[in-house]
């Protein structure tokens, strides 16, 4: 079919997410470097340079065959994943919270016991 190689929503979402990450990393880096040379860097200019850099980087990555192929493969693999239902996620979250509380209590008990033993041994 002709639609097999056509870009789909997950591919575009991956590129959009990557572009946003690049934007924020560039903004932080430019502000940090520019702030090293001047006391108050212009926020508008920093944001403008970061936006232009992120757009150019995203377009370059989108037009690169290797990158596009890799992103398309990742999106195809993500569609094969069997995602948990909402109920399964709630149950797993509750189990994690309960086990975290139990682990904290056990570790707190060990800390208390070893602290008391240390005070008896060293007589502090």
Task: Describe this protein's structure.
With 124 residues, the chain is mostly helical. 83% of the residues lie in helices and 0% in strands. Helix 1 (9-37) packs antiparallel against helix 2 (43-63) and helix 1 (9-37) packs across helix 3. It starts with 8 loop residues before the first helix and ends with a helix. The mean pLDDT is 89.
Main features:
2 domains, 83% helix, 4 helices, 124 residues, mainly alpha
What are the low-pLDDT stretches, counting only 5+ consecutive residues below 50?
none
What's the total number of strands?
Answer: 0
User: How many separate domains?
Assistant: 2
What's the helix-strand series? Answer: HHHH
The assigned structural class equals mainly alpha
The amount of beta strand, in percent, is under 5%
Largest sheet, strands/sense/barrel: none
Specify the overall morphology: flat
Q: What is the residue-averaged pLDDT?
A: 89
Helix content class:
over 70%
Q: Report how far apart the termini are.
A: 79 Å
Rg (C-alpha, Å): 26 Å
Count of helical regions: 4
Would you spell out the secondary-structure blueprint of this structure?
Blueprint: H1 9-37, H2 43-63, H3 65-80, H4 86-122
